[in-house]
Amino acid sequence: MPGLEATRWCSFRSYARIRQITREPKLVTVNETQTDKLKKRERSRDFFCFVQDAFRVFARQSSIILGSAWAFAGAVLVILVWLLTGPTFHFSDTWQLIINTATTVITFLMVFLIQNTQNRDAKAMHLKLDEIIRALKDARNELVDLEDLSDEELKKLDEQFRRLRKRAEHDGTRTRKVRSAESR
């Protein structure tokens, strides 16, 4: 998977930058064509890392700004201005086309921003839950990678948890009845 390999490389490069790892030069004899290929590959990886990091920062900042009440108020203001200009343009097809095109383009771009932030948030949540599962002594470690299970396996696991919940509820109501009878 080239994308995964590039992601790992970007992570390593970030780690190397943070730790300021310096590499000692290795004495290896390589012909010039191999050296050129390696340099091109590193440049393309550097570009990929740059684009990936830039998009991540842009998506994060955009989600913060565009998810605010001010952004909503601005969108409502744009719609009101558009509506108020309707009589001036005699509610023409061009007048309608302007708002249709603008909303379509904005919606199209927002899909990618929202998907990116949701993927990052979901990944962060999975990692946090995985850490909790691993930290708990009696937790089932098989639950760490649930997102990789098939729909059928998830359905079976859901049924297991429903049975456990019913059993716990049954035990809880039985315990309450016994306690209330004992207190009388």
Give an overview in words.
- Helix 1 (2-19) packs across helix 2 (32-66) and helix 2 packs across helix 4 (93-135).
- This protein has 2 domains: 1-19 and 36-66, no CATH class; 69-148.
- Helix content is 79%, strand content 0%.
- The chain has 184 residues and is mainly α.
- The longest helix has 43 residues, at 93-135.
- It has helices at residues 2-19, 32-66, 69-84, 93-135, 151-183.
Overall number of domains: 2
Helix proportion range:
over 70%
How many separate helices? 5
Summarize model confidence as the mean pLDDT: 78
Morphology = flat
Describe the main β-sheet briefly: none
Q: In angstroms, what is the radius of gyration?
A: 28 Å
Percent of sequence in beta strands = under 5%
Query: Would you identify the regions where 5 or more consecutive residues have pLDDT less than 50?
Result: 15-28
Structural class: mainly alpha
Concise summary:
The chain has 5 helices and no strands. The protein is mostly helical and 184 residues long. About 8% of the residues have low confidence.
